Amino acid sequence: MTTDITVYWNDRMLDHEPPKGAFKFPFTPIVAAPEVHPDRRERVQNIRAMLEHAFGDISETISPQPASRAALERVHDPDYLDWLAEFCADGGGRIDDTTTGLNEHTYDAARVAAGAAIAAAGQALDGAKDGGGEVLPYALCRPSGHHAQPDCADGFCYLNNVALAAEAALATDGPADKAADRVAIIDWDVHHGNGTQEAFYDRDDVLFVSAHNDHGSWHPEYHPQEGSITEFGEGDGEGYTLNVPLPPGTGNRGYEAFFERIVTPAIAGFNPDLILVSAGQDAGPSDMNGRNIATREGFRQMGSKVQQLAEETADSALALIQEGGYQPSHLSFATLGVFEGVLGRTVDLDGYGTGDPFEFLDEPTELVDEWLDHAVDHHRESPVFI
After folding, report:
1. Identified catalytic residue from 76, 146, 147, 330
2. pTM of the prediction?
3. Range of 42's domain?
4. Is 76 in the active site?
5. Residue 11 — pLDDT band, cuts 50, 70, 90?
6. Of 36, 191, 348, 349, which one is least surrounded by beta carbons within 10 A?
7. In this structure, what CATH number is given to the domain that contains residue 119?
């Protein structure tokens, strides 16, 4: 039973700051007051405040070491890493015509975030080896990582934290005393984890399961992946990428069905040594970068489900890796729900109780069921379902 939390965090991750503009887009003269980029530092500051208020008695914060160059090269191309370091050293800026920007501190902050994810995965494996599972490792990463591809930045991401954590867990020279043979990554961020998919697309030792809005490709060079069900893996990895596009308006019931119909049987069939969650809580009703309506209760259910799966299949080896979430206030409520689910401990907030003040829309259940039926029919061909 999980009773405590280890938070991997360092204030150096606050030094990353993308350029201001028109929301996430470049500045335009028709906007009189340029906005702070949605990847604002208040996102993670609010999560830290939530952890202190709700779980201060059971949480410990550890400052991670920045990921080494050797660790980064397990996922990323050396030429890309050289470019990233040089671009930041020159002051940063926006990358071409994308919504992704950097400053002089981004590379260092991203290395710390990657180190946090690697350390969390190592702790999860070591806890399982010791017959534990009492402590939940949580990498509070900023910047996020799941869009970063081996050879380019994308979607506010520069180094792929969860992919680096998986590779470190699989490596015989990694930080854990016991290397994993199989790692499962569950990505519930409202955006497709295209970078993670790209890193393991031809591999059968990593299962990647992603539920996301059906947003498709958003850039021909930096984000060509569609996140469709037909992106299913290739070669040895065929059937080990399970994409589940969801219609706008998907809420708690849809995510519950996603776990029951796809995640649970897939994880059981894969039988991983470690479960990593790309925990982006941007599927909420007020998140300006998402189109879904999952609430604190929905995230509570998801947290409970991943904890149960880790206990049943991975000797409780579970780590959470923070991804997106861009309405800073609701991000705290949603992330609180995740921890409540994993810990089996509901927090009664003064003035809010155990609910979610952002809950206000109804879910289109018939449409969600139709899309899930389509995904289930397709993914039955995966080896993990056979």
Report:
1. 147
2. 0.97
3. 4-385
4. no
5. very high
6. 348
7. 3.40.800.20
